[in-house]
Write a structure and sequence with these properties.
Blueprint (H helix, E strand, L loop, with lengths): L2 H27 L6 H8 L3 H7 L3 H23 L6 H18 L1 H13 L7 H27 L9 H19 L5 H25 L2 H7 L5 H15 L4
Amino acid sequence: MGLQERREKEKDNRRMLILESARSLFFAKGFKDVTVDEVAKLSELGKGSIYLYFSSKEEIYAQILLHDVEIFYQQAIALFNKRKTAVDSLLEFSFLYADFFLKEPELFRMLMTFMLRADQLSLSEEQYKNIVATTRKAIDVISCVLKHGIDSKEFPSTIDIKYNQFILWGLLNGIIALYIFTGAEAKRREKIHSSIKSALTIHVLGLKQVNEDFFDSWKNVYTQFAREYEESVESRLLNGGG
C-alpha cells in the first residue's frame, strides 16, 4: 500500500470513527442534546478535526441517516422474492421495517424528526435531497411488491400503486410511533407485529375488493406521515427545492 493510499484509508477510518461516536451519542441522548465537543471527546479527536470531515453536526446527522436507511434498503431488497405471494412479501417487509427501528428506537425518532421538522435541522439542500432520495428508494420496495401483486392477479389492476405505497408506509410509521417508546419494552415487538398484521389484513382485503369509484373516493386519505412526505418532501424534490 502506497503512502497516498494509506493516508486515504486513515481518513476513511477516522471519518467512520466520528460517525460511530456521533451515532452512539445521538441514540443515547437525542440529536439536540449532543454537542460537537462530545463527539470529539468520544472519538478522541480535537474539535477542529471533526470539522475537517464534517461541516456541522447536521451533516453528521444526515450521513448517519443515509447510511442506516441504505442498510435497510439492502435488507429489504434481499427479502423481496417474487416466488412468494405479494401479501406474504408485504408482511415480511413490514416486520423487517418495524424490527429495524426496534433495534435502534432513536433512529426512528431521527427519521421522523427529519420527515416532519426538516426545516428545523439546518440541513443543506443537497443533504436534504440525498436523505429524501434514499428514503424514497427504500419505501419504493412497497411499490415493487404491489406491482407483483397486480402481475400475479392477487390485486386488481385498478389499484393506485403510488397512493397505496404511501398509505402503507404511513400505516407502519403510525403503528411504530404508537408503541416504540411506550409500555413494557419486552412486549413492544409483539404489540407492533400484531397491530401490523391486523392492519395489513384489513388493507389487503380492501385492495382485493377495490374498484375505481371506491378508490377515487379514498385516495386522498393519508396518515400524517404519508401526507407530510407527499406534500412537503416529495414536492420539494420535484420542484427543485422551491
